[in-house]
Amino acid sequence: MIADDEAPAREKLERWLAEHPDMTVVGSVEDGLSAAQCIEESRPDVAFLDIQMPALSGLQVAAQLEPSVAPVIVFVTAYDEHAVKAFDLNAIDYLLKPYDGDRFARAVQRVRLRLNSREPGAAAVAMGRARVASCERLLVPDRERLQLIDAAAVEWLEADDNYVHVHTAGGSYLLRRTLQDLLSQLGEQRFIRIHRSTAVNLACIGSLTPLFKGDYEVHLHSGRVLRLSRRYRDALFARMGR
Q: Among 198, 205, 194, which residue's Cα sits nearest to residue 235?
């Protein structure tokens, strides 16, 4: 899969990949949201992601992938600073524009080697998350498509085995992620865990009602009521200035 907002760059990769009989291009897109959608639908083995793209950058796309099923990622960039940092952080590889045939061939060879590893895309996902830090928008499935929602619109998160239900005023979305992983991506300065399987957006809390044995009810502005266990009580009180 190829993602680059410049048509000549996409065409160049398509031509050169066509020279490798073991590789087939399953998608060629021009922005990060389309790249994420293509990865979700086509499950490519390899993704060439331009770092600078509309909607989502290549790094942001990588950051929102599930490491165990992520493709091998080759970051493509015209900015040497990004390229060097990506390489230093163990991304599978990067292509610095303008690159020549020899450099492309070396990248393809590294791709073949990485495809035989246990989790081929995990290093690039970890690199993307390290570089992106907290995100302001979250990629979620909406029926047959993916969409971006504002992180501030997320009211609370609910863990369900290896999945997380993301609850907003407009609806709920199911992501194949761990709760801690998602909290790290969204930024723990905005969210706080109130139960082993629940985290809440601090800005959405309206009031607290004491229950028994140190537990509380957490009333959100939307009317939703959640349970605060005493294990997480002091941390929440500290964040709320109580």
A: 194
> In the chain, what are the domain boundaries?
2-132, 137-240
DSSP state of 203: G
**pLDDT value, residue 81:** 67
Query: Side-chain half-sphere of 121: how many Cα atoms within 13 Å?
Result: 26
CATH superfamily, region 2-132: Response regulator (3.40.50.2300)
Identify the residue whose tokens are 């969210």: 191
Distances (CA, A) of 45 to 20, 35, 233: 14, 13, 44
Specify the pTM: 0.74
How far is residue 31 CA from its own chain's centroid? 15
**Tens of pLDDT along 132-150?**
666 778 888 887 788 888 8
CB 216 within 8 A of CB 209: yes
CA distance 173 to 3: 25
Residue 159: CB atoms within 10 Å: 19
Sheet containing 225-228: order of strands: 205-210, 216-220, 225-228
Calculate the CA 22 to chain-centre distance. 28
Which CATH number is associated with domain 137-240?
2.40.50.1020
H or E stretch covering 110: helix 101-115
The set of long-range contacts for 175-179, using a CB threshold of 8 Å and a minimum separation of 24, is 175/140, 175/141, 176/66, 177/66
DSSP 69: G
User: Contact 10/2 with Cβ under 8 angstroms?
Assistant: yes
Per the structure block, which two tokens stand in for 184? 């790290």
